[in-house]
């Protein structure tokens, strides 16, 4: 698998592989994946490839259903530069070799276990692609909560991680909340700007929201030194509360550095 992961690389700086194991009906089920992608990343349609293989025994229609749902919340929620191509692909192959009782019911424990493992593998691959964006120095994770619909949450999250102004601000470690709010506003999502809260830093596991830089759609006084410190991390997390519904979504991107221009200025076909 190492050789295959290396063979599909283009401007990637490292191979992207992940593997997970779960137990279904007393049988060990393995889910493994590899991907490539660094520039021209903005699914749907970009120069990324992702291959996932598993030995789970599952009904074909259910596998397709799971994978379509997962792709929408993983690979389709990343962006490096907002540019698309015609060459993206994500596929999954299952051979049933684990010999677990065939999964035919969406409500079964096996279905949920497998879906969780498949989501983990593909989400980690998606994040690795975003992290390895051309010239990138930081991975950006934007989480949106309180949206009226899942689609609205996705629109806002993707709009922010695609914003060149915001990406440049992250590279320059500038806590410019206005660039975030601007991207929220032009996302075309249904929202009320006066309800929007923005935080730099968002540790979900520790239930810490980080430094609040905007409240009710307006900038507020905040600890600039602490905000800059957050932006110095290799992973920069942003939390955006829309406070207008129950849906949430997360998107991943990277900062926009001098090296992105250099790489693409020197790249000739």
TrEMBL record:
Keyword entries, A-Z: Acyltransferase, Amino-acid biosynthesis, Arginine biosynthesis, Autocatalytic cleavage, Cytoplasm, Multifunctional enzyme, Transferase
Annotated Pfam families: ArgJ
Localization (cell): Cytoplasm
GO terms classed as biological process: L-arginine biosynthetic process; ornithine biosynthetic process
Pathway(s) the chain acts in: Amino-acid biosynthesis; L-arginine biosynthesis; N(2)-acetyl-L-ornithine from L-glutamate: step 1/4; Amino-acid biosynthesis; L-arginine biosynthesis; L-ornithine and N-acetyl-L-glutamate from L-glutamate and N(2)-acetyl-L-ornithine (cyclic): step 1/1
GO molecular function, one term: L-glutamate N-acetyltransferase activity, acting on acetyl-L-ornithine as donor
Function: Catalyzes two activities which are involved in the cyclic version of arginine biosynthesis: the synthesis of N-acetylglutamate from glutamate and acetyl-CoA as the acetyl donor, and of ornithine by transacetylation between N(2)-acetylornithine and glutamate.
Similarity comment: family membership: Belongs to the ArgJ family.
The name this protein goes by in its record: Arginine biosynthesis bifunctional protein ArgJ
Gene symbol of the encoding locus: argJ
